[in-house]
Amino acid sequence: MTDARSAPSPGPARFETVHRDVLVIGGGPAGMAAALAASEAGATVTLVDERPSLGGQVYKQPPPAFEQRGGAPHGVQQRRGQQMIAAVEGSAVDALTGTVVWAIWGREAFVCVHDCEVRRVSAGAIVIAAGAYDRPVAFPGWTLPGVVTAGGAHSLVKAFRVSPGRRILMAGSGPLSLSFAAELKRHGANVVMLTEASPRPTAGAALRLLAASPGNTASLWEGLRYLAYLRVRRVPIRWSTMVRSAEGGDRVERAVITRVDRDWRPIAGSEEVLEVDAVCVGYGLFPSNELARLCGCAHRYDEQRGGLVAERDGWMRSSVPGILIAGDGAGVSGVETAIAEGVLAGLAAAVDTGRLREGDAAARAAGARAALRRQRRFRRALDRMYPVGPGIYDLADDGTVVCRCEEVTLGEIRAALAAFPADAQGVKEYTRAGMGLCQGRMCARQVAAEVARAARVPIGCVAPASVRPPVKPLPIAAVAAEMPERRRRIVELKP
Length: 495
What we know:
By secondary structure, this protein is of the alpha/beta class. The chain folds into 3 domains: 4-133 and 286-383, FAD/NAD(P)-binding domain, CATH 3.50.50; 136-283, FAD/NAD(P)-binding domain (3-Layer(bba) Sandwich), CATH 3.50.50; 391-461, Arc Repressor Mutant, subunit A (Orthogonal Bundle), CATH 1.10.10. It contains 15 helices and 21 strands. It has helices spanning 29-40, 76-89, 150-160, 175-186, 203-211, 217-232, 290-294, 335-352, 358-364, 366-385, 410-419, 424-431, 444-455, 476-479, 484-493; strands at residues 14-25, 45-48, 94-96, 99-105, 108-113, 117-128, 132-134, 147-149, 168-172, 191-196, 237-239, 241-247, 254-259, 272-275, 278-282, 285-287, 299-302, 307-310, 323-325, 401-403, 408-409. The strands form 6 sheets. Strands 1, 2, 3, 4, 5, 6 and 19 form a 7-stranded mixed β-sheet that branches. Strand 2, helix 2 (76-89) and strand 3 form a beta-alpha-beta unit.
């Protein structure tokens, strides 16, 4: 395969088929770990990522043409990311950046390189390491300019040295919210308050976390350092508090915060107005599971890990032969877990393609398995300290735009549910919520919550709307590329 940078200028798409032992989708920690493990085992590996450079969200690097001068020094995560990226670039892994995987059929993935070149990658095994994205939270005013996700704000400050505002409210929950607030402050942003939706940790919760810390002391100390840094910089931290709404004209001018109970439901009469021009929302992450669902991989519901999480065996193999899933795309668990899962998936892919014996794979996997056990123990303690409350779906009102792409309000969704019994797919077809550019990534869970409320069932019982290719936006020229085998397959599948 040619390097993505040598792709032709935009024009009529051309079609090319290549063959590899292993295809890894996603250039974050899990994907890079899987690609390195499979390549070191002797497999031919192609790694694709839609970003212009490897690293993913956690190890995000400045753009290739961006030169940093002065400012805060690189953090530990960025330096570690640089080392991992250098390892991939120095290996036999064929890495393609700026490349979107828009469909998978069987063990064939269709990719679009730099908007103009279409390729079909036929692989003996496919590792999906698509990562996660910031959890959307719908509340009045969340569509105003100045309301950004924590990850988006972190990227602005970390990669471009641009602050999202002059007076910033950090509203969220969990360790990531704490770390984002500290990183924003460290890079010079003015964080006026951090609100944490969960209650202040009890002594019992702290002891459970301490008991789970052997082997995870670095993560524990990192969190304590973030907390101490914010206190030294006199950033107020409000526990059991959430953002209720954002107000303003052309952009955010004020934010209303409110006290919440243990289920994250607002407590009437506890509202407080803050003068801010930016609200960073960090209530956790959702797995990017569209490709895995498109493949038909089995999932189960776990709100704490982001909703639909993939069912896998101990080697990260999914329920579909030839498809492995690693990292936060299978269920949000953190960077250390993602790396360990990536190693296991890469080794399993090498075994499945005949490049590595099972006994050798077991020996190479020992370190990753030990790390995974430690991380999962630590994660369980953290989840008990920061449980996601169902009240997160109770912030929007009838006038709140839920589907930003199609401008569908919560009132319109409720009217559709009142008119006829429906599921998430029915709401999508009736209101167009979820049919826009983001394909439901921003609104699907809020819609599911309303369906569950109307049907009086838990949200985990609501089947998600269908996933169809292309799972990511791409030029029509890419779809129209000459693909005779695909055309025949479409004809064969017609009833």
